[in-house]
Design a protein that fits this description.
alpha+beta, disordered C terminus, about 90 residues, 3 strands
């Protein structure tokens, strides 16, 4: 398993545990996650990615939308290597 996939899995599992308790205050926000912890909430995935780019040097993170609807946009929605993204 790759480091990126391990980070995705760890963050997603942790996210599911806390989701019921964060839903009311953070519905439809985007949680920036690292090492199984939510670092911050953002109003858009773009803002979350921008913050990650500025603060997470190893580029291992994930972004989860706080919602009670199951939405999966595939691998790209879970973790992105910032070196592959062009502004």
């Amino acid at each position: 398993m790759t480091k990126i996939q391990e980070e995705i899995d760890r963050n997603y599992d942790a996210f599911l545990v806390v989701l019921p308790s964060i839903m009311h205050a953070n519905r439809d926000k985007y949680a920036l996650m690292k090492s199984g912890k939510i670092l911050a909430y953002f109003s858009s995935s773009y803002d979350a990615r921008t913050a990650a780019k500025m603060s997470i040097s190893d580029n291992l993170f994930s972004i989860q939308r706080v919602t009670d609807s199951s939405i999966d946009l595939g691998y790209f929605s879970h973790a992105v290597s910032l070196s592959t993204i062009q502004p």
